[in-house]
Design brief:
The chain is of the alpha+beta class. It has two helices and six strands. The strands form two sheets. It has a three-stranded antiparallel β-sheet with strand order 1-2-3, with no helix packed on it. It has a three-stranded antiparallel β-sheet with strand order 4-6-5, with no helix packed on it.
Length: 115
């Protein structure tokens, strides 16, 4: 069995009409410096580089920190625990909060600039 290397393709997933290529890597230099640390699947930074569905719903990851519109139990600290979160595939979903939606024209522009 070959060893996983940084930059290797982990998986290609399509979530709510958007295709994401997920690669192995590290989130920070501390992880990379570990002698026995294997690369892990890296998910898109959807806070820094937001993407939207055609209807304007923002894509989010399950592990994203909660926003000001969070509806869930106190003490929870990820989108997965929010009632607005709609699960997609491979830890990526969408936020169905109406206050976070973009209008369709903005959504198409943001999506066309996606990585």
């Amino acid at each position: 069995m070959s060893r996983i290397r940084e930059g290797d393709l982990y998986r290609i997933v399509t979530v709510y009409g958007k295709t994401f290529e997920l690669y192995y890597g590290y989130y920070d230099e501390i992880e990379r410096a570990g002698k026995h640390t294997e690369p892990i699947p890296i998910y898109p930074d959807l806070i820094r580089y937001p993407l939207y569905t055609e209807d304007g719903s923002p894509f989010v990851t399950e592990m994203q920190d909660i926003c000001s519109h969070f509806l869930g139990r106190e003490g929870e600290e990820s989108c997965l625990a929010c009632r607005h979160f709609e699960k997609g595939d491979e830890l990526i979903g969408i936020c169905k909060c109406e206050k976070r939606k973009r209008d369709s024209q903005q959504s198409m522009c943001a999506s066309s600039k996606a990585v």
